[in-house]
Amino acid sequence: MADFLLYALIAGLGLALVAGPLGSFVVWRRMAYFGDTLAHSALLGVALGMLLQINLTLAVTAGCVLLAVLLVAMQNRKWLASDTLLGILAHSTLSLGLVVLALTESVRVDLLAYLFGDLLAITRHDLGWMLGGLAVVAALLACLWRPLLSVTVHEELARVEGLPVSGIRLALMLLIAIVIAVAMKVVGVLLITSLLIIPPAAAQRHARTPEQMAFGASCLGCVAVLGGLALSWNLDTPAGPSIVVSAAVLFMLSLLVPRRQ
């Protein structure tokens, strides 16, 4: 197997394994629009990273984390409805990122690679950054699994039991921000949220416990990565969109299977 294909396979499978459990919380808490907002802000991180000439993965991670903290702070103040606030920030950060990229005339940027992913162009260095970030997210998610479940099932009851609800909610948003930052190379800014949502949505219909849903989402994500890479290799299609199309096909197939009672 060629090195570039091996790196793409490892990166895609690693992302799918972590995105399954984390995406389950995105589906349960109906946070898809929040994920979209963070994904759109990732392009601003790319632009600032190029402007300041720093590591792009670090720049995108820092940008997503800062936006997540800003969102939580603004939501707590309740100046605007959450969906309105998310819509303003999503389109503002995406547009600002495009403006900054246009102003950096000395740097040539393959914008389509950042918007739709360029999985087959991942290098050994990119793979190291990505696997490191995913390992951190997986470890933190394992430690916070029970508190996150408690807050997701019944927030008021979790608060009565003494759990730091606001801190746990912020931790979940920061984990999503890190995954979005490291996943940008795989499926691109505009398609990241789909990998967090589609496999868990397909697994939800046939799972009896949260753990079954998380495991099923990871497995379906891995199958989507394998199918997308095979489609890209044989038909010369973009790898990121091909993975999302494979995930969508798996979701449609899951609808044909009778739901478990």
TrEMBL record:
<keyword id="KW-1133">Transmembrane helix</keyword>
<feature type="transmembrane region" description="Helical">
    <location>
        <begin position="127"/>
        <end position="148"/>
    </location>
</feature>
<keyword id="KW-0406">Ion transport</keyword>
<feature type="transmembrane region" description="Helical">
    <location>
        <begin position="40"/>
        <end position="73"/>
    </location>
</feature>
<keyword id="KW-0812">Transmembrane</keyword>
<comment type="similarity">
    <text>Belongs to the ABC-3 integral membrane protein family.</text>
</comment>
<dbReference type="InterPro" id="IPR037294">
    <property type="entry name" value="ABC_BtuC-like"/>
</dbReference>
<keyword id="KW-1003">Cell membrane</keyword>
<keyword id="KW-0862">Zinc</keyword>
<feature type="transmembrane region" description="Helical">
    <location>
        <begin position="85"/>
        <end position="107"/>
    </location>
</feature>
<feature type="transmembrane region" description="Helical">
    <location>
        <begin position="239"/>
        <end position="257"/>
    </location>
</feature>
<feature type="transmembrane region" description="Helical">
    <location>
        <begin position="168"/>
        <end position="192"/>
    </location>
</feature>
<dbReference type="Pfam" id="PF00950">
    <property type="entry name" value="ABC-3"/>
</dbReference>
<keyword id="KW-0472">Membrane</keyword>
<protein>
    <recommendedName>
        <fullName>High-affinity zinc uptake system membrane protein ZnuB</fullName>
    </recommendedName>
</protein>
<comment type="function">
    <text>Involved in the high-affinity zinc uptake transport system.</text>
</comment>
<keyword id="KW-0813">Transport</keyword>
<dbReference type="InterPro" id="IPR001626">
    <property type="entry name" value="ABC_TroCD"/>
</dbReference>
<feature type="transmembrane region" description="Helical">
    <location>
        <begin position="6"/>
        <end position="28"/>
    </location>
</feature>
<feature type="transmembrane region" description="Helical">
    <location>
        <begin position="213"/>
        <end position="233"/>
    </location>
</feature>
<keyword id="KW-0864">Zinc transport</keyword>
